[in-house]
């Protein structure tokens, strides 16, 4: 069934057509565009979903083209209880702020998914989780944007890549518009997505460093055992977004460019362009530059 057909059925009935065997309790941390879309889709699949955010949007969450989504929104970790699945959809720089939610939501049997860009996003979350907690990293290939608080436009894209053993995560989305793809080459896919994300800065000085930055990232990936081909650079070089910087919001430079610098250091790879871009991005996103 097509996405448009699923959307029409959701709009008519508030649920996607194919039921699930056993609804589970799902908590989404982060009320931004990605968190709101995942909350809406999982709610439509029949799961017991709660959205954890800084504030509850007036009138409740809404995802176009699905429409209004009637689900609880928590604004205080003290109100939260352990869930079967916790999905972290905050930006990289917001992870410390999610610590209170993680402490309240993650129990001994909770599984955690990280809905975020990067190659080390799961590892960066572990310090805030109990030892032994299973963490599933996910690569999000959706075009979504926040129109107003709680109101999200999902314009296109339906693919989420996860590691090959994350079939239980994929099963949560059966019959929904999201296509969860367990991938044997997940690490390579994560590095390819990272290359695209490296092209986000719109600053012309940073963009001028793009060829060197991408070459360093590919060299670092290979040193870490990830066989990226030479054409990965040429396939990425024209990509540009810059949406986060244009809107005056902090970018995820520590998670994206910083990941290249950290991984390079671990494997003895010199990455002067990446170090330069990271320093420039830190300056662009300092409190003074964002005023």
TrEMBL record:
<dbReference type="Pfam" id="PF02558">
    <property type="entry name" value="ApbA"/>
</dbReference>
<dbReference type="Pfam" id="PF08546">
    <property type="entry name" value="ApbA_C"/>
</dbReference>
<feature type="domain" description="Ketopantoate reductase N-terminal">
    <location>
        <begin position="26"/>
        <end position="161"/>
    </location>
</feature>
<dbReference type="InterPro" id="IPR013328">
    <property type="entry name" value="6PGD_dom2"/>
</dbReference>
<dbReference type="InterPro" id="IPR013752">
    <property type="entry name" value="KPA_reductase"/>
</dbReference>
<dbReference type="InterPro" id="IPR051402">
    <property type="entry name" value="KPR-Related"/>
</dbReference>
<dbReference type="GO" id="GO:0005737">
    <property type="term" value="C:cytoplasm"/>
</dbReference>
<feature type="domain" description="Ketopantoate reductase C-terminal">
    <location>
        <begin position="202"/>
        <end position="284"/>
    </location>
</feature>
<dbReference type="InterPro" id="IPR013332">
    <property type="entry name" value="KPR_N"/>
</dbReference>
<protein>
    <submittedName>
        <fullName>2-dehydropantoate 2-reductase</fullName>
    </submittedName>
</protein>
<dbReference type="InterPro" id="IPR036291">
    <property type="entry name" value="NAD(P)-bd_dom_sf"/>
</dbReference>
<dbReference type="InterPro" id="IPR008927">
    <property type="entry name" value="6-PGluconate_DH-like_C_sf"/>
</dbReference>
